[in-house]
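Review this:
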Amino acid sequence: MAGRVEGKVAFITGAARGQGRAHAVRLAEEGADIIAVDICEQIESNPYPLATEKDLAATAASIERLGRRVVSVKADVRDRARLEAALSDGVAALGRLDVVVANAGILPMAMGDPQPSDFVDAVDVDLVGVMNTIAVAIPHLGDHSSIVITGSTAAMLPNTTDNPALGPGSAGYGWAKKTLIGYSEQLAQHLAGRFIRVNVIHPTNVDTHLLHNDGLYSMFRPDLAAPARDDVEPAFIQFHAMPIPYVDPVDISNAVLFFASDESRYVTGQQLRVDAGALLKAPGGPVGG
């Protein structure tokens, strides 16, 4: 069924690359116009390169090739005033706001010199950045709108983000993503009277830069001096019940599309795992009985 979000406008953070770009393109394919923002700068505690202005321009070009309108703005989700200005510019150009995808995230990791500030950086982007995104969006949202938040299956699992070997940044990432569960459920209750839905998608490993970097590779294969993708994929597979190393960004985007569309008009406060059975496989994971 084509045009599942026809005529809607979606505000997406972290849109220059990875999951954010996939979400923007997938929603545009189904008829949405896009307000795309990204920091387009490096955060030093993050061990892999973040997106650039060139990446954000490539996202915008992909949307335009689909015949949809796009407003792309360099903005840091940690800066509420800048984020508010970027969104206001987008709404002024595109006329409305129907969907918020609070996706921007980082995973600072110990790379020989962990710092307490790594925890702060992770929380500032992964939790405060989400709250800033939603705070600036709510005044623009009409009734029957949708808010979609990116969580993390890893943050639900023991000995993953809270592994001391990964340092304060990973702990901050996990704490932020866990905190989003309660935050989203509270927000869903308070917006329900306006039929504004709030849902969280918790991905497993996704084929993006956040997964594919030397820091994570070394954590999965500490027995190797310089592990490469081929070395870590067998370990990634062991993480899941389904025998795959990771999912594609579009697998998450398809869930975003469902929550953005009117098909989910009465679905709110949900925590949806797109995790290839990772939590089911984990010791102590949910088991029906």
Notes: The beta strands are 9-13, 33-38, 70-74, 99-102, 146-150, 197-203, 271-274. The chain has a mean pLDDT of 94.
